[in-house]
């Protein structure tokens, strides 16, 4: 369904929390990916560039990792800007989900992993309230992505 389950107040507090982490999109995006690759090494197999990298330090320096970290954060930023417009939100999430399901064949559980690491980083940097207010958004994103995957036959 296209209905978003977030109230206006929830949208506002989620945006506030997101803005703080998005200021350093490339660095924070990189941190999130490096954590994912380090804690869940199987996720590296989707990225041919990163496969051979074992040290977190090496990954942090990699232009490809940094570029993708920034890309992930930009995509989430687009979603966050459209939380109060379900049609626009789905217009961003749907092609992204389809691409990851059909072309890239990324296991959808990886979206949850990335979201959880973002929440963890928010909590470390800005405290539990930031994390709590953004949790609604990550649930919304993951729910919609999972629905798209189901439609694509996963």
Automatic annotation (TrEMBL):
Domain of life: Eukaryota
UniProt xrefs under Pfam families: Globin
The enzyme's E.C. designation: 1.15.1.1
Protein name per its UniProtKB record: superoxide dismutase
Reaction(s) catalysed (UniProt annotation): H2O2 + AH2 = A + 2 H2O; 2 superoxide + 2 H(+) = H2O2 + O2; Fe(III)-heme b-[protein] + nitric oxide + H2O = Fe(II)-heme b-[protein] + nitrite + 2 H(+); Fe(II)-heme b-[protein] + nitric oxide + O2 = Fe(III)-heme b-[protein] + nitrate
Domain Globin: 5-150
GO molecular function: heme binding; iron ion binding; oxygen binding; oxygen carrier activity; superoxide dismutase activity
Task performed by this protein: Involved in oxygen transport from the lung to the various peripheral tissues.
Keywords of the record: Heme, Iron, Metal-binding, Oxygen transport, Transport
Family membership: Belongs to the globin family.
């Amino acid at each position: 369904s296209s209905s978003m389950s977030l109230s206006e107040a929830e949208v506002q507090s989620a945006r506030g929390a997101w803005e703080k982490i998005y200021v350093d999109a490339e660095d924070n995006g990189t941190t999130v990916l490096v954590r994912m690759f380090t804690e869940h090494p199987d996720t590296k197999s989707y990225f041919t560039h990163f496969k051979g990298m074992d040290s977190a330090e090496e990954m942090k320096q990699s232009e490809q990792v940094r570029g993708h970290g920034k890309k992930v954060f930009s995509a989430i930023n687009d979603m966050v800007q459209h939380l109060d417009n379900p049609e626009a939100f789905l217009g961003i999430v749907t092609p992204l989900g389809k691409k990851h399901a059909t072309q890239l064949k990324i296991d959808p559980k990886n979206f949850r992993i990335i979201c959880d690491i973002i929440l963890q980083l928010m909590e470390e940097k800005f405290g539990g309230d930031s994390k709590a207010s953004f949790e609604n958004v990550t649930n919304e994103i993951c729910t919609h992505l999972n629905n798209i995957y189901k439609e694509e036959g996963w």
